[in-house]
Specification:
Blueprint lengths: L2 E6 L3 H12 L4 E7 L2 H11 L3 E4 L8 H8 L1
Parallel strand pairs: 1-2, 1-3
Helix pairs in contact: 2-3
């Protein structure tokens, strides 16, 4: 069963780079991408990823606050 990963970053090019690197591993699955803290929390609760790769300086809600709400 693949490890489900959620990516949260407000820069498209960063999300693309992370997605490209992680997608090379067949045992890892990108289950979702968020562009801000609120979306990261919503998708985290909805998708129940095994891991979240998140920028701490997201727009709206910071990545730190989003991480607090997800744990």
């Amino acid at each position: 069963m693949p490890v489900k990963i959620l990516i949260a970053d407000d820069h498209e090019v960063v999300r693309q780079g992370i997605r490209t690197i992680l997608s090379a591993r067949p045992e890892w699955e990108i289950c979702g991408e968020a562009v801000n803290g609120q979306e990261a929390v919503r998708l985290g609760n909805e998708l129940q990823p095994d891991a979240v790769i998140m920028d701490i300086a997201l727009t709206g809600m910071s990545g730190r606050e989003a991480a607090r709400q997800l744990t």
